Amino acid sequence: MSLDERRSESDVVSEQGTVLVVDDDPHLVGMYAAMLEDTHTVLTATSGEEALVRLSNEVDVLLLDRRMPGLSGDEVLETVREEGYDCRVAMITSVDPDTDIVEMEFDAYVVKPVRRQDLREFVESLLLRARCGRDTRELLSVTSKIVALESRFDEDSLDDNEEYRRLRERRERLEAKNRERIAELIDRDESRLVFRDVLQKIIESQSVVGAGASEPIERTADAEGGHDG
Fold first, then answer.
1. What letter would DSSP give residue 13?
2. Would you place residue 179 in the very low, low, confident or very high pLDDT band (cuts 50, 70, 90)?
3. Residues 216 and 199 sit within 8 Å (Cβ to Cβ)
4. Rg (CA), the chain
5. CA distance 179 to 202
6. Is the pLDDT of residue 218 over 90?
7. In this entry, which stretches build a coiled coil (predicted)?
8. What is the dihedral of CA 111, 113, 114, 116, to 10 degrees?
9. Per-residue pLDDT tens over the stretch 100-132
């Protein structure tokens, strides 16, 4: 890997980035937009159909509700990937994660409600991940799914689940392939943002103590923005 390629994987994104916020609750869409519009260009949509109309190659981050009337968030995500859009996607939803997320091609899974600071950090994280190589992004996506499932199910239930076991095996292969690169990224100042929701899991698997390792990432209960989507 060249020096320029390594720099592009870890440097803080200089441009604002364009974020498309999609939720069938107009109030929630407006609230998320207000949380982000001082630092990013924000587009909004209140349905899956409108999301696909607003979507373009200019969109860097897609914040997507799962449960919407008409075209669901899952269907929007599938269309986004089928049509080759290269935006980073976070599912922001009140739907608790289940093993159906294993094959979904998102980058992060966020269960509502979400606080302003958490939302802003997730967007920054996804913008930074966009600069990572494909293998690194895939490792972070897979790890995000594992973290989401482990936050809901106990260890015994997951150990008996074939899809979860395959997901773990997939992560192990990606870790073996990218161990040195991930260790380099963890040691950088922006690692807490790059890894955001998966930092603790990555550090555990890498056996590397990097920046931010002493501060566990927690989901707080007194958050803003609840909804049933």
1. P
2. confident
3. no
4. 17
5. 10
6. no
7. 157-184
8. 170
9. 999 999 999 999 999 999 899 889 989 988 888
The mean pLDDT value for 179-206 works out to: 65
SS3 50: helix
Give dist(CA 61, CA 222) in Å, integer: 25
> For 29-43, 68-82, 195-209, which range has the lowest pLDDT when averaged over its residues?
195-209
Domain boundaries, the chain: 3-206
- Signed CA dihedral, 110, 150, 220, 112: sign only: positive
- Is residue 91 within 8 Å of residue 64, measured between CB atoms? yes
CATH of domain 3-206: 3.40.50.2300
pLDDT of residue 15 exceeding 90: no
**What contacts 24+ positions apart, CB below 8 Å, involve 196-201?**
196/108, 196/121, 196/122, 196/125, 197/108, 197/109, 197/110, 197/122, 197/125, 197/144, 197/147, 198/140, 198/143, 198/144, 198/147, 201/143, 201/146, 201/147
Which distant-in-sequence residues (6+ apart) come within 8 Å of 72 by Cβ?
Answer: 48, 66
pLDDT of 173 above 90 = yes
- 23-32, 90-99, 169-178: least confidently modelled range: 169-178
Distance in angstroms (rounded) separating the CA atoms of residues 57 and 95: 28
C-alpha span between 191 and 173 (Å, rounded): 22
Give CA torsion, residues 133, 80, 196, 144, to 10 deg: -90
Residue 115 CA, distance from chain mean position: 15
